[in-house]
Amino acid sequence: MDAKVLQKNLLELIRRTSVELPSDVVRAIEAGARKEAAGSNAKYAFDVIRENIGMAKVKSQPLCQDTGTIIVYADLPGWCDEKTFRKAYEKATAEATKVGYLRQNSVDAITGANSGDNLGPGSPSFHFHQASGKALTVRMMLKGGGCENVSTQYSLPDSRLGAGRDLEGVRRCILDSALQAQGKGCGPGILGVCVGGDRGTGYIAAKETLFREMDDVNEDPRLAKLEKRILKEANGLGVGPMGFGGATTLMGVKITHRNRVPASFFVSVAYMCWAFRRNGFVLSEGGRISRWLYAS
Amino acid sequence: MLLEAPFTEAKIRALRVGDMVEITGVIFTGRDAVHKYLHDGGKPPVDLRDSIIYHCGPVVVKEDGKWVVKAAGPTTSAREEPYQGPLMEQYGIRAVIGKGGMGPKTLQYCQKVGAVYLHAIGGAAQVLAERVVAVKGVHFAEKFGSPEAIWEFQVDRFPAVVTMDSHGQSLHAQVLEASSGKLKQLLG
Lengths: 296, 188
Fold this sequence. Notes:
The complex is a heterodimer of chains A (about 300) and B (about 190). Chain A is of the alpha+beta class. Chain A folds into 2 domains: about 5-20 and about 65-145 and about 275-290, Dihydrodipicolinate Reductase, domain 2, CATH 3.30.360; about 145-270, no CATH class. Helices cover about 40% and strands about 20% of the residues of chain A. Chain A is globular, with a radius of gyration of 19 Å. Chain A starts with a helix and ends with a strand. Chain B is α/β, with parallel strands linked by helices and about 190 residues long. In chain B, about 30% of the residues lie in helices and about 30% in strands. Chain B contains 7 helices and 9 strands, in the order E-H-E-H-E-E-E-H-E-H-E-H-E-H-E-H. In chain B, the strands form 2 sheets. Chain B has a 5-stranded mixed β-barrel with strand order 2-3-6-7-9. Chain B has a two-stranded antiparallel ribbon with strand order 4-5. Classes of the chains: A alpha+beta (about 300), B alpha/beta (about 190).
Protein backbone atom coordinates (compact mmCIF):
# COMPACT_ATOMS: atom_id res chain seq x y z
CA MET A 1 0.00 0.00 0.00
CA ASP A 2 1.18 3.50 -0.80
CA ALA A 3 0.92 5.60 2.37
CA LYS A 4 1.11 8.83 0.35
CA VAL A 5 -1.93 7.86 -1.75
CA LEU A 6 -3.88 6.94 1.39
CA GLN A 7 -2.97 10.25 3.02
CA LYS A 8 -3.93 12.25 -0.07
CA ASN A 9 -7.32 10.54 -0.25
CA LEU A 10 -7.95 11.09 3.47
CA LEU A 11 -7.16 14.78 3.00
CA GLU A 12 -9.82 14.90 0.27
CA LEU A 13 -12.29 13.20 2.62
CA ILE A 14 -11.62 15.83 5.30
CA ARG A 15 -11.91 18.66 2.76
CA ARG A 16 -15.16 17.39 1.33
CA THR A 17 -16.64 16.79 4.77
CA SER A 18 -15.79 20.31 5.95
CA VAL A 19 -16.91 22.27 2.88
CA GLU A 20 -19.84 20.26 1.41
CA LEU A 21 -23.05 18.89 2.80
CA PRO A 22 -24.15 15.54 1.34
CA SER A 23 -27.25 15.74 -0.85
CA ASP A 24 -29.52 13.98 1.68
CA VAL A 25 -28.84 16.80 4.17
CA VAL A 26 -29.29 19.52 1.54
CA ARG A 27 -32.64 18.00 0.54
CA ALA A 28 -33.80 18.10 4.16
CA ILE A 29 -32.77 21.75 4.45
CA GLU A 30 -34.60 22.61 1.21
CA ALA A 31 -37.71 20.80 2.46
CA GLY A 32 -37.51 22.74 5.74
CA ALA A 33 -37.14 26.06 3.95
CA ARG A 34 -40.27 25.37 1.89
CA LYS A 35 -42.35 25.00 5.05
CA GLU A 36 -41.52 28.44 6.44
CA ALA A 37 -43.70 31.45 5.68
CA ALA A 38 -42.40 34.08 3.26
CA GLY A 39 -40.99 37.08 5.10
CA SER A 40 -40.59 35.21 8.39
CA ASN A 41 -37.45 35.17 10.55
CA ALA A 42 -37.31 31.41 9.96
CA LYS A 43 -37.29 31.84 6.18
CA TYR A 44 -34.57 34.46 6.54
CA ALA A 45 -32.45 32.01 8.54
CA PHE A 46 -32.93 29.32 5.87
CA ASP A 47 -32.04 31.77 3.09
CA VAL A 48 -28.72 32.57 4.76
CA ILE A 49 -28.08 28.88 5.48
CA ARG A 50 -28.74 27.92 1.85
CA GLU A 51 -26.55 30.70 0.53
CA ASN A 52 -23.81 29.59 2.92
CA ILE A 53 -23.97 25.97 1.73
CA GLY A 54 -23.47 27.04 -1.88
CA MET A 55 -20.71 29.50 -1.07
CA ALA A 56 -18.65 27.09 1.07
CA LYS A 57 -18.70 24.49 -1.71
CA VAL A 58 -17.68 26.92 -4.44
CA LYS A 59 -14.93 28.53 -2.34
CA SER A 60 -13.84 25.16 -0.90
CA GLN A 61 -13.81 26.70 2.58
CA PRO A 62 -15.35 25.41 5.83
CA LEU A 63 -19.14 25.69 6.04
CA CYS A 64 -18.80 26.71 9.67
CA GLN A 65 -15.72 28.09 11.40
CA ASP A 66 -16.21 25.59 14.21
CA THR A 67 -14.85 22.58 12.36
CA GLY A 68 -15.66 20.50 15.40
CA THR A 69 -14.51 17.32 17.02
CA ILE A 70 -13.11 15.07 14.31
CA ILE A 71 -14.81 11.69 14.68
CA VAL A 72 -13.45 8.88 12.51
CA TYR A 73 -14.63 5.32 11.91
CA ALA A 74 -12.41 2.98 9.95
CA ASP A 75 -13.12 -0.63 9.00
CA LEU A 76 -9.64 -1.96 8.41
CA PRO A 77 -8.88 -4.88 6.03
CA GLY A 78 -5.78 -7.03 6.29
CA TRP A 79 -3.63 -4.71 4.18
CA CYS A 80 -4.01 -1.72 6.49
CA ASP A 81 -3.19 -1.94 10.18
CA GLU A 82 -4.36 0.53 12.80
CA LYS A 83 -0.99 2.19 13.23
CA THR A 84 -0.61 2.85 9.50
CA PHE A 85 -4.09 4.28 9.21
CA ARG A 86 -3.72 6.46 12.27
CA LYS A 87 -0.47 7.91 11.03
CA ALA A 88 -1.89 8.68 7.58
CA TYR A 89 -5.04 10.25 9.02
CA GLU A 90 -3.07 12.38 11.47
CA LYS A 91 -0.84 13.66 8.69
CA ALA A 92 -3.90 14.45 6.59
CA THR A 93 -5.46 16.28 9.55
CA ALA A 94 -2.38 18.43 10.12
CA GLU A 95 -2.29 19.23 6.40
CA ALA A 96 -6.02 20.04 6.33
CA THR A 97 -5.49 22.43 9.24
CA LYS A 98 -2.54 24.06 7.54
CA VAL A 99 -4.47 24.77 4.35
CA GLY A 100 -7.58 25.92 6.22
CA TYR A 101 -10.08 23.08 5.66
CA LEU A 102 -10.05 22.76 9.46
CA ARG A 103 -9.68 25.48 12.09
CA GLN A 104 -7.00 25.09 14.77
CA ASN A 105 -9.62 23.59 16.99
CA SER A 106 -8.03 21.28 19.54
CA VAL A 107 -6.77 22.56 22.87
CA ASP A 108 -5.21 20.99 25.95
CA ALA A 109 -8.06 20.15 28.33
CA ILE A 110 -6.31 21.63 31.36
CA THR A 111 -4.24 24.55 30.08
CA GLY A 112 -6.31 25.48 27.02
CA ALA A 113 -3.14 25.59 24.90
CA ASN A 114 -3.90 25.07 21.20
CA SER A 115 -1.90 22.28 19.55
CA GLY A 116 -2.21 24.17 16.25
CA ASP A 117 -2.69 21.06 14.12
CA ASN A 118 -5.80 19.43 15.65
CA LEU A 119 -3.68 16.58 17.02
CA GLY A 120 -3.44 15.56 20.66
CA PRO A 121 -4.83 13.05 23.15
CA GLY A 122 -8.17 11.88 21.75
CA SER A 123 -7.98 14.13 18.69
CA PRO A 124 -8.99 12.95 16.15
CA SER A 125 -11.34 10.54 17.89
CA PHE A 126 -10.72 7.15 16.23
CA HIS A 127 -12.98 4.09 16.20
CA PHE A 128 -11.50 1.01 14.55
CA HIS A 129 -13.20 -2.16 13.41
CA GLN A 130 -12.01 -5.07 11.35
CA ALA A 131 -13.34 -5.18 7.80
CA SER A 132 -14.78 -8.46 6.54
CA GLY A 133 -13.61 -7.97 2.93
CA LYS A 134 -10.65 -6.39 1.23
CA ALA A 135 -11.95 -2.82 1.17
CA LEU A 136 -11.09 -0.09 3.68
CA THR A 137 -14.20 1.88 4.65
CA VAL A 138 -13.79 5.28 6.31
CA ARG A 139 -16.57 7.41 7.76
CA MET A 140 -16.06 10.75 9.44
CA MET A 141 -18.07 13.46 11.12
CA LEU A 142 -17.23 17.01 12.22
CA LYS A 143 -19.32 17.95 15.24
CA GLY A 144 -19.14 21.52 16.48
CA GLY A 145 -19.23 22.73 20.06
CA GLY A 146 -22.60 24.48 19.95
CA CYS A 147 -24.51 21.30 19.16
CA GLU A 148 -22.33 19.12 21.38
CA ASN A 149 -23.09 21.41 24.33
CA VAL A 150 -26.84 20.82 24.00
CA SER A 151 -26.51 17.05 23.66
CA THR A 152 -27.79 15.34 26.76
CA GLN A 153 -28.43 12.08 28.61
CA TYR A 154 -31.42 11.01 30.69
CA SER A 155 -31.63 8.30 33.32
CA LEU A 156 -35.09 6.75 33.61
CA PRO A 157 -37.36 6.95 35.47
CA ASP A 158 -37.42 10.76 35.34
CA SER A 159 -40.08 12.22 37.57
CA ARG A 160 -39.84 15.77 36.16
CA LEU A 161 -40.87 14.43 32.74
CA GLY A 162 -43.13 11.68 34.01
CA ALA A 163 -40.92 9.36 32.00
CA GLY A 164 -40.93 5.66 32.85
CA ARG A 165 -38.83 2.82 31.51
CA ASP A 166 -40.64 2.30 28.24
CA LEU A 167 -40.90 3.82 24.76
CA GLU A 168 -43.32 6.44 26.05
CA GLY A 169 -40.64 7.47 28.55
CA VAL A 170 -38.10 7.60 25.72
CA ARG A 171 -40.43 9.84 23.70
CA ARG A 172 -40.75 12.25 26.61
CA CYS A 173 -36.97 12.53 26.99
CA ILE A 174 -36.35 13.16 23.29
CA LEU A 175 -39.03 15.84 23.07
CA ASP A 176 -37.65 17.49 26.20
CA SER A 177 -34.15 17.52 24.69
CA ALA A 178 -35.47 19.33 21.61
CA LEU A 179 -37.18 21.90 23.83
CA GLN A 180 -34.14 22.46 26.03
CA ALA A 181 -31.86 22.92 23.02
CA GLN A 182 -34.05 25.75 21.63
CA GLY A 183 -31.87 27.44 18.98
CA LYS A 184 -28.61 27.05 20.88
CA GLY A 185 -27.43 24.00 18.96
CA CYS A 186 -27.77 25.83 15.61
CA GLY A 187 -31.03 24.20 14.60
CA PRO A 188 -32.86 22.90 12.74
CA GLY A 189 -31.14 19.89 14.23
CA ILE A 190 -30.94 16.16 13.69
CA LEU A 191 -31.13 13.94 16.76
CA GLY A 192 -29.16 10.74 17.11
CA VAL A 193 -30.60 8.78 20.01
CA CYS A 194 -29.55 5.62 21.81
CA VAL A 195 -31.85 3.80 24.22
CA GLY A 196 -29.91 1.75 26.75
CA GLY A 197 -26.23 0.92 26.94
CA ASP A 198 -24.02 2.36 29.65
CA ARG A 199 -23.39 6.10 29.70
CA GLY A 200 -20.36 5.80 27.42
CA THR A 201 -21.69 3.37 24.80
CA GLY A 202 -25.01 5.24 24.81
CA TYR A 203 -23.46 8.49 23.62
CA ILE A 204 -21.21 6.72 21.12
CA ALA A 205 -24.13 4.78 19.60
CA ALA A 206 -26.24 7.96 19.52
CA LYS A 207 -23.59 9.64 17.37
CA GLU A 208 -23.08 6.55 15.20
CA THR A 209 -26.75 6.49 14.27
CA LEU A 210 -26.26 9.93 12.68
CA PHE A 211 -24.41 8.12 9.88
CA ARG A 212 -27.80 6.84 8.66
CA GLU A 213 -29.23 8.56 5.57
CA MET A 214 -31.62 11.40 6.43
CA ASP A 215 -34.61 9.91 4.61
CA ASP A 216 -34.14 6.22 5.46
CA VAL A 217 -36.61 4.23 7.56
CA ASN A 218 -35.58 2.49 10.76
CA GLU A 219 -35.62 -1.28 10.21
CA ASP A 220 -37.16 -1.74 13.66
CA PRO A 221 -40.86 -0.92 13.09
CA ARG A 222 -41.37 0.22 16.70
CA LEU A 223 -38.54 2.72 16.39
CA ALA A 224 -39.57 3.76 12.87
CA LYS A 225 -42.97 4.69 14.25
CA LEU A 226 -41.45 6.56 17.18
CA GLU A 227 -39.00 8.50 14.98
CA LYS A 228 -41.84 9.66 12.75
CA ARG A 229 -44.03 10.66 15.66
CA ILE A 230 -41.32 12.59 17.50
CA LEU A 231 -40.24 14.45 14.36
CA LYS A 232 -43.81 15.63 13.83
CA GLU A 233 -44.33 16.54 17.47
CA ALA A 234 -40.98 18.34 17.83
CA ASN A 235 -41.76 20.44 14.76
CA GLY A 236 -45.06 21.33 16.40
CA LEU A 237 -43.13 22.96 19.26
CA GLY A 238 -42.42 25.93 17.00
CA VAL A 239 -38.81 26.52 18.08
CA GLY A 240 -37.77 26.88 14.44
CA PRO A 241 -34.37 27.45 12.84
CA MET A 242 -31.94 29.27 15.18
CA GLY A 243 -34.75 29.31 17.74
CA PHE A 244 -36.42 32.15 15.82
CA GLY A 245 -39.79 30.38 15.89
CA GLY A 246 -41.04 28.44 12.85
CA ALA A 247 -42.13 25.12 11.44
CA THR A 248 -38.77 23.33 11.32
CA THR A 249 -37.26 22.57 14.72
CA LEU A 250 -35.81 19.21 13.71
CA MET A 251 -34.97 17.67 10.34
CA GLY A 252 -34.55 14.13 11.54
CA VAL A 253 -34.67 11.72 14.47
CA LYS A 254 -32.62 8.51 14.37
CA ILE A 255 -33.01 6.03 17.20
CA THR A 256 -30.98 2.94 18.01
CA HIS A 257 -30.69 0.74 21.08
CA ARG A 258 -28.09 -1.18 23.07
CA ASN A 259 -28.59 -3.75 25.77
CA ARG A 260 -28.44 -2.36 29.30
CA VAL A 261 -28.03 -3.80 32.76
CA PRO A 262 -31.41 -4.22 34.47
CA ALA A 263 -30.59 -1.42 36.94
CA SER A 264 -29.90 1.25 34.27
CA PHE A 265 -32.05 2.83 31.57
CA PHE A 266 -30.31 5.67 29.75
CA VAL A 267 -31.59 7.74 26.86
CA SER A 268 -28.64 9.46 25.17
CA VAL A 269 -29.33 12.27 22.71
CA ALA A 270 -26.66 13.55 20.32
CA TYR A 271 -27.86 16.85 18.84
CA MET A 272 -26.39 17.64 15.42
CA CYS A 273 -26.58 21.16 13.96
CA TRP A 274 -27.90 22.02 10.48
CA ALA A 275 -24.26 22.07 9.30
CA PHE A 276 -24.39 18.28 9.40
CA ARG A 277 -20.92 17.44 8.18
CA ARG A 278 -20.44 13.74 7.67
CA ASN A 279 -19.07 11.78 4.80
CA GLY A 280 -17.17 8.63 3.97
CA PHE A 281 -15.70 6.49 1.25
CA VAL A 282 -14.55 3.01 0.36
CA LEU A 283 -10.91 2.52 -0.55
CA SER A 284 -9.65 -0.37 -2.61
CA GLU A 285 -6.40 -2.09 -1.80
CA GLY A 286 -3.64 0.47 -2.14
CA GLY A 287 -5.83 3.23 -0.74
CA ARG A 288 -7.61 4.50 -3.84
CA ILE A 289 -11.21 5.73 -3.67
CA SER A 290 -13.65 3.23 -5.20
CA ARG A 291 -16.84 5.01 -4.09
CA TRP A 292 -18.26 7.74 -1.81
CA LEU A 293 -20.80 6.70 0.82
CA TYR A 294 -22.99 9.79 0.51
CA ALA A 295 -24.01 11.36 -2.78
CA SER A 296 -22.86 14.94 -3.19
CA MET B 1 -34.22 46.83 6.73
CA LEU B 2 -30.91 48.64 6.57
CA LEU B 3 -29.13 49.55 9.81
CA GLU B 4 -26.44 52.02 8.85
CA ALA B 5 -23.71 53.74 10.88
CA PRO B 6 -23.77 55.90 12.92
CA PHE B 7 -25.66 53.60 15.28
CA THR B 8 -27.49 56.26 17.23
CA GLU B 9 -29.82 55.65 20.14
CA ALA B 10 -32.77 56.82 18.03
CA LYS B 11 -32.05 54.19 15.32
CA ILE B 12 -31.61 51.45 17.91
CA ARG B 13 -34.73 52.39 19.88
CA ALA B 14 -36.72 52.15 16.64
CA LEU B 15 -35.85 48.45 16.30
CA ARG B 16 -38.29 45.77 17.45
CA VAL B 17 -37.98 42.05 18.06
CA GLY B 18 -38.34 40.19 14.76
CA ASP B 19 -36.90 42.97 12.62
CA MET B 20 -34.54 41.57 9.99
CA VAL B 21 -31.69 43.99 9.57
CA GLU B 22 -28.68 44.40 7.32
CA ILE B 23 -25.86 46.24 9.00
CA THR B 24 -23.53 48.57 7.14
CA GLY B 25 -20.68 50.34 8.90
CA VAL B 26 -17.81 49.47 11.22
CA ILE B 27 -18.32 46.81 13.90
CA PHE B 28 -15.85 45.46 16.49
CA THR B 29 -15.36 41.80 17.34
CA GLY B 30 -15.01 40.95 21.00
CA ARG B 31 -15.46 37.72 22.89
CA ASP B 32 -14.44 36.22 26.22
CA ALA B 33 -11.00 37.80 26.74
CA VAL B 34 -12.10 41.29 25.68
CA HIS B 35 -15.23 41.25 27.85
CA LYS B 36 -13.31 40.11 30.90
CA TYR B 37 -10.56 42.69 30.28
CA LEU B 38 -13.05 45.57 30.02
CA HIS B 39 -15.04 44.31 32.97
CA ASP B 40 -11.85 44.24 35.07
CA GLY B 41 -11.26 47.91 34.29
CA GLY B 42 -9.06 47.65 31.18
CA LYS B 43 -9.14 50.63 28.83
CA PRO B 44 -10.75 50.02 25.41
CA PRO B 45 -8.38 50.67 22.49
CA VAL B 46 -11.25 52.00 20.34
CA ASP B 47 -14.12 54.40 20.93
CA LEU B 48 -17.10 52.22 21.85
CA ARG B 49 -19.67 55.03 21.92
CA ASP B 50 -22.59 54.04 19.65
CA SER B 51 -20.72 50.91 18.63
CA ILE B 52 -21.68 47.36 17.72
CA ILE B 53 -19.79 44.46 19.30
CA TYR B 54 -19.73 41.15 17.42
CA HIS B 55 -19.28 37.96 19.44
CA CYS B 56 -17.02 36.29 16.92
CA GLY B 57 -13.63 34.61 16.74
CA PRO B 58 -12.92 35.06 13.05
CA VAL B 59 -10.40 33.30 10.85
CA VAL B 60 -8.34 36.13 9.36
CA VAL B 61 -5.25 35.66 7.21
CA LYS B 62 -2.82 38.07 5.60
CA GLU B 63 -2.73 37.85 1.80
CA ASP B 64 -0.39 40.19 -0.11
CA GLY B 65 0.00 42.34 2.98
CA LYS B 66 -3.78 42.71 3.44
CA TRP B 67 -6.03 41.11 6.03
CA VAL B 68 -8.62 38.80 4.50
CA VAL B 69 -11.50 37.33 6.50
CA LYS B 70 -11.94 33.61 5.74
CA ALA B 71 -14.70 32.71 8.21
CA ALA B 72 -16.66 34.95 10.56
CA GLY B 73 -19.71 33.29 12.08
CA PRO B 74 -21.08 34.15 15.52
CA THR B 75 -20.13 32.38 18.73
CA THR B 76 -22.44 31.61 21.68
CA SER B 77 -23.23 34.87 23.47
CA ALA B 78 -24.42 33.48 26.80
CA ARG B 79 -20.85 33.39 28.10
CA GLU B 80 -20.77 37.22 28.18
CA GLU B 81 -24.00 37.51 30.15
CA PRO B 82 -22.30 38.66 33.40
CA TYR B 83 -20.39 41.46 31.62
CA GLN B 84 -22.48 42.64 28.68
CA GLY B 85 -25.08 44.87 30.34
CA PRO B 86 -22.71 46.89 32.52
CA LEU B 87 -20.33 47.34 29.55
CA MET B 88 -23.19 48.57 27.35
CA GLU B 89 -23.94 51.17 29.99
CA GLN B 90 -20.36 52.19 30.75
CA TYR B 91 -19.23 52.61 27.14
CA GLY B 92 -22.43 53.34 25.25
CA ILE B 93 -22.39 50.10 23.23
CA ARG B 94 -25.58 50.13 21.14
CA ALA B 95 -25.79 46.54 19.97
CA VAL B 96 -24.21 43.14 20.23
CA ILE B 97 -24.29 40.52 17.49
CA GLY B 98 -24.02 36.87 18.46
CA LYS B 99 -25.95 33.64 18.57
CA GLY B 100 -28.17 31.84 21.06
CA GLY B 101 -29.45 35.01 22.73
CA MET B 102 -28.72 36.45 26.15
CA GLY B 103 -30.43 36.51 29.51
CA PRO B 104 -32.61 38.80 31.61
CA LYS B 105 -29.72 40.94 32.88
CA THR B 106 -28.68 41.96 29.37
CA LEU B 107 -32.33 42.48 28.40
CA GLN B 108 -32.74 44.91 31.32
CA TYR B 109 -29.69 46.90 30.27
CA CYS B 110 -30.91 46.97 26.65
CA GLN B 111 -34.02 48.68 27.91
CA LYS B 112 -32.16 50.99 30.26
CA VAL B 113 -29.43 52.23 27.93
CA GLY B 114 -31.10 51.83 24.53
CA ALA B 115 -29.38 48.79 23.05
CA VAL B 116 -30.36 45.62 21.16
CA TYR B 117 -29.24 42.03 20.66
CA LEU B 118 -28.81 41.03 17.02
CA HIS B 119 -28.86 37.31 16.21
CA ALA B 120 -26.62 36.28 13.32
CA ILE B 121 -27.11 32.90 11.64
CA GLY B 122 -25.00 30.34 13.48
CA GLY B 123 -22.81 28.27 11.22
CA ALA B 124 -23.05 30.65 8.27
CA ALA B 125 -19.33 31.42 8.39
CA GLN B 126 -18.92 31.97 4.64
CA VAL B 127 -21.88 34.26 4.01
CA LEU B 128 -20.97 36.38 7.00
CA ALA B 129 -17.27 36.55 6.07
CA GLU B 130 -18.29 37.68 2.59
CA ARG B 131 -20.10 40.69 4.09
CA VAL B 132 -16.92 41.88 5.78
CA VAL B 133 -15.61 44.09 3.00
CA ALA B 134 -12.51 45.47 4.77
CA VAL B 135 -10.48 45.00 7.92
CA LYS B 136 -9.81 48.48 9.30
CA GLY B 137 -7.58 47.42 12.15
CA VAL B 138 -6.85 44.95 14.91
CA HIS B 139 -6.13 45.42 18.61
CA PHE B 140 -4.81 43.02 21.25
CA ALA B 141 -3.86 40.42 18.62
CA GLU B 142 -0.63 39.71 20.53
CA LYS B 143 -2.18 39.93 23.96
CA PHE B 144 -5.26 37.73 23.43
CA GLY B 145 -4.48 35.82 20.21
CA SER B 146 -6.17 36.36 16.85
CA PRO B 147 -9.64 34.87 17.53
CA GLU B 148 -9.96 36.82 20.82
CA ALA B 149 -8.64 40.12 19.45
CA ILE B 150 -10.70 43.23 18.69
CA TRP B 151 -11.04 43.31 14.90
CA GLU B 152 -12.46 46.42 13.26
CA PHE B 153 -14.62 45.12 10.43
CA GLN B 154 -16.17 47.28 7.75
CA VAL B 155 -19.35 45.34 6.95
CA ASP B 156 -21.79 45.74 4.10
CA ARG B 157 -25.36 44.46 4.50
CA PHE B 158 -24.44 42.03 7.27
CA PRO B 159 -27.63 40.02 7.98
CA ALA B 160 -29.06 39.56 11.49
CA VAL B 161 -32.38 39.39 13.31
CA VAL B 162 -33.31 41.59 16.28
CA THR B 163 -34.11 39.04 18.99
CA MET B 164 -33.88 41.34 22.04
CA ASP B 165 -34.96 44.96 21.80
CA SER B 166 -34.81 48.09 23.97
CA HIS B 167 -38.48 47.76 24.91
CA GLY B 168 -38.11 44.73 27.17
CA GLN B 169 -38.97 42.13 24.52
CA SER B 170 -36.94 38.95 23.91
CA LEU B 171 -37.77 36.56 21.09
CA HIS B 172 -35.83 33.88 23.00
CA ALA B 173 -38.05 34.27 26.04
CA GLN B 174 -41.17 34.28 23.84
CA VAL B 175 -40.21 31.14 21.89
CA LEU B 176 -39.18 29.33 25.07
CA GLU B 177 -42.48 30.13 26.73
CA ALA B 178 -44.60 29.19 23.73
CA SER B 179 -42.70 25.96 23.02
CA SER B 180 -42.74 24.95 26.71
CA GLY B 181 -46.52 25.38 26.68
CA LYS B 182 -46.80 23.15 23.61
CA LEU B 183 -44.58 20.48 25.12
CA LYS B 184 -46.69 20.49 28.26
CA GLN B 185 -49.76 19.80 26.10
CA LEU B 186 -48.00 16.99 24.26
CA LEU B 187 -46.85 15.30 27.45
CA GLY B 188 -50.23 15.71 29.14
